[in-house]
Amino acid sequence: MSSLPLGDTFHVFDTTLRDGAQREGITYSVTDKLAVARLLDGLGVGFIEGGWPGAMPKDTEFFARARAELDLRHAKLVAFGATRRPNTRVDEDPQVKALLDANTDVITLVAKSDRRHVELALRTDEAENRAMVRDTVRYLVDHGRRVFVDAEHFFDGYAHDPDCALGVLESAVDGGADVVVLCDTNGGQLPLGLAETVEQVISRTGFRVGIHCQDDTSCAVANTVAAVQAGATHVQCTANGYGERAGNADLFAVVGNLVTKLGLPVLPTESLAELTRVSHALAEIANIAPHTHQAYVGASAFAHKAGLHASAIKVDPELYNHIDPDTVGNGMRVLVTEMAGRASLELKGREFGIDLARRPEAVTNAVRKVKELEARGWSFEAADASLELLLRQELSELDEAPFVLESYRVLLDRRSDGEIVSEATVKVHVAGERVIETAEGNGPVHALDAALRKALLPHLSWLDSVELSDYKVRILAEAPGTDAVTRVLVESTDGEREWTTVGVHGNIVEASWLALCDALVHKAMRVRALV
Amino acid sequence: MSSLPLGDTFHVFDTTLRDGAQREGITYSVTDKLAVARLLDGLGVGFIEGGWPGAMPKDTEFFARARAELDLRHAKLVAFGATRRPNTRVDEDPQVKALLDANTDVITLVAKSDRRHVELALRTDEAENRAMVRDTVRYLVDHGRRVFVDAEHFFDGYAHDPDCALGVLESAVDGGADVVVLCDTNGGQLPLGLAETVEQVISRTGFRVGIHCQDDTSCAVANTVAAVQAGATHVQCTANGYGERAGNADLFAVVGNLVTKLGLPVLPTESLAELTRVSHALAEIANIAPHTHQAYVGASAFAHKAGLHASAIKVDPELYNHIDPDTVGNGMRVLVTEMAGRASLELKGREFGIDLARRPEAVTNAVRKVKELEARGWSFEAADASLELLLRQELSELDEAPFVLESYRVLLDRRSDGEIVSEATVKVHVAGERVIETAEGNGPVHALDAALRKALLPHLSWLDSVELSDYKVRILAEAPGTDAVTRVLVESTDGEREWTTVGVHGNIVEASWLALCDALVHKAMRVRALV
């Protein structure tokens, strides 16, 4: 495998921010979209489709902010939009104008290529549809844009009326389009048939062909790869396969397959080991739990449970893995739960700079404690700082707590004029003094955080730099009849470092309090280690 | 499509209970296994592989109980096991004896077909490996069993040393095996290459060939279907694709594709509409949340979010679905989101039994209001009841509110002994009276809910049947420096019906309050409609 990516001869075109945002449950803020674009650019994809300016106010804002705030190293930003309306002038179409206003180098235009859709949805005829495509492409090209055309419903359209479908591709290229993208919009294709169609289209037209697949037959990744084998040189994917209905072709599986199975260096070599990390980070931004069994990047993708396999794995891990998990930044796990408990804690200890190998009894106690807490709803997977505190406590390495709580009280008042006041009072002991402070906030937890800071800041000057940067709540449903439990994750930052702590309780405010306290105790520990 | 299933000419072979049980997180009890077998049999699969008797005590028990308790209508139960050990007599191998003791009509034997595995894992040579396969098959056939042979690591083995791999198949058939199953054990195959190999094997041997795929390239379903197109007449799948690492080929997607795309009636016709129900029931038994975006059977598999698509769906639903969702017992849903336009709201209105077609100005206002609210963090995708209230409000169809809030106050006290008290007071106007009530709860929202019920129940008797059945919280991070917003989803039930409402606010308690109020207002609306 060459270490050079294929440049413009092969396009990895990501549409997480446009088509991927159609997934049920995803709502990106503009800030989220900028963060997604940065991660994708870091991976080295060639194109990032950012949205549909004009149609969605949020996307218009995204492109405006992207110009000012994004400094992309690899990717070109792409605006998505439709061709002009039937029987209108392209230079008078506000949607087309919004596309130009997005000010991207590249524009993707969606064009109908199934005659039934032209007639039933667009309510126009084939000739006008072709004119709409040609006019709009030419207009955008004349304004200095590179244009790709998404031929919507191409495969269904080609099966129904091949000449009409090919005619739309011709109009696109005639207008100056660079790539025509064959879209399996309804996702009904299977790989062998799809590959045959792609081959036919290329041999009949000679055009540069791209592929865009939906996962309704659970074949989106396979269809995308089959299209490449049939000659497509532009693949449209979304991170983790997010998309409407069953989703789109998963970027990570497509890239994994193209690089490791077909030997196509479609991303910079060093990016491959980033796939797992970026996949999980993008899930975090989308606020969707990562799919544990996802190919290549899932937490279970290289996890072995079978006793049959375990002995063979010991002989040679390659015998039972289709690739070396390190290639994609993932790791192999053998699921022998009790052993894995000790082993993973020891590994974790190494990360924290704690040598647990010589303290077997402390590890035993810590494993037991972690298991007890996890049975009650705690989770340390994403809360390293709380886990470190737990480990150091077992090793009796923790100094005296920086403060001790006596009590707190939170008052929430929704008055008859609709005004809401949240107020908290804390009573704490810090630096030998008993301190009582009250503060307001925009919610109960915010008020509690404010009161605690007010009480501690005169005594703990380092607190000034510490901020709560993220706050996540999950309600853990219990068996019917029992009370639900709330798990709170708090992410803190001191401007240099970020750390995450966890709290679990039946009461959301107390769960938040526990996580807040861990955050401050962890910072205090670091401060002491430095002085 | 014929209404007759293909009988023995095509095998749908399910291995949910054997290979599927290798999925991380699944532990079936014997009772679970019996329930899974009943559901699969009801679907009409031809074979149910129940486990590995002898190797797993639970599986030995399963086969014993299955004989007594299962009354299978369609499926044959299959026991799975290995060939005899190297350099031993087959009639002295306890594992082979356990296979006979399971007393099934059919046995699947796993055989190594990759020379490297024969040498490194089995530590024997090619000739002895072939003898192990032939001897064991013949012994079981002589004892009246039908035998299938799983050729483990077949595709890797065939690529590495085709003669060795084919030799193992020959020994199996020589011993009397009925079907040789080509296994992509490490899951590294892609459809075009796999189909070519299957074709070669069939043309070189003439054997009856089956296929077993793992999902490590995200192509298990595509590979299975491609193998059938290449001549395989036996497919091994698991429910929902459960299995080791990234999983196996999903039974529901494979069957959906074979029946609706290739026109192969591999299950009884009436079974197809059961796919969705059975998939969810099997997820329930496995104690795994159903995968919402699963092809064919996922809750989102026919959910449409895009406004662009929704307008076309109104014209003809077939334009935007690859199949009629009813075919597989699923349903179409239109998701109302910021991307949605008039068309999705009108479709949604139809679901609620509201005719919006004659009220265009109300639709315009509702679309604007939905977009405004979504821009502030609301989401109606999962909160149909709140959306219905919004629509009816725009149509001025809502009666007077069942109650009006004056104010509420929530007090949370964490005392110095660690005890936490949550208490809420509400002041509301209901049935012409002003009512003040106070109640405690295990958290601020629970206390508020309790106080509201206490205030309303004497006046609204229907409230007695209404319960909060689920409560979800999401913190929506905004740009740094701005305040985060909290979105709360509340699911309510009255024992007959469930409905979901949403509330959004900077303060989590107020967000919860808004969702709680919508839940009660929605119920009141239903109650009035009935009287």
UniProtKB/TrEMBL annotation, chains A, B:
Q: Which reaction does it catalyse?
A: pyruvate + acetyl-CoA + H2O = (3R)-citramalate + CoA + H(+)
UniProt pathway = Amino-acid biosynthesis; L-isoleucine biosynthesis; 2-oxobutanoate from pyruvate: step 1/3
InterPro entries per record:
2-isopropylmalate_synth_dimer (IPR013709), AIPM/Hcit_synth_CS (IPR002034), Aldolase_TIM (IPR013785), Citramal_synthase (IPR005675), LeuA/HCS_post-cat (IPR054691), LeuA_allosteric_dom_sf (IPR036230), PYR_CT (IPR000891)
User: A single Gene Ontology molecular function, please?
Assistant: 2-isopropylmalate synthase activity
Q: Which residues does the UniProt record annotate as the domain Pyruvate carboxyltransferase?
A: 10-279
CDD domains, A to Z: DRE_TIM_LeuA3
Query: Among its keywords, does the record have Translocase?
Result: no
- UniProt keyword DNA-binding present: no
Gene3D superfamilies recorded for this chain?
Answer: 1.10.238.260, 3.30.160.270, Aldolase class I
The record ties this protein, via PROSITE patterns, to: AIPM_HOMOCIT_SYNTH_1 (PS00815), PYR_CT (PS50991)
Which keywords does this chain's UniProt record carry? Answer: Acyltransferase, Amino-acid biosynthesis, Branched-chain amino acid biosynthesis, Isoleucine biosynthesis, Transferase
**Gene Ontology biological-process entries:** isoleucine biosynthetic process; L-leucine biosynthetic process
Q: Which domain of life is it from?
A: Bacteria
- According to the record, the segments passing through the membrane are none
Instruction: Give the EC number(s) listed in the UniProt record.
Output: 2.3.3.21
PANTHER family, per database record: (R)-CITRAMALATE SYNTHASE, ALPHA-IPM SYNTHASE/HOMOCITRATE SYNTHASE
The record's comment on protein family reads: Belongs to the alpha-IPM synthase/homocitrate synthase family.
User: Record's NCBIfam families?
Assistant: citramal_synth (TIGR00977)
**Protein name (record):** Citramalate synthase
Species the sequence originates in: Umezawaea endophytica
Gene that codes for this? cimA
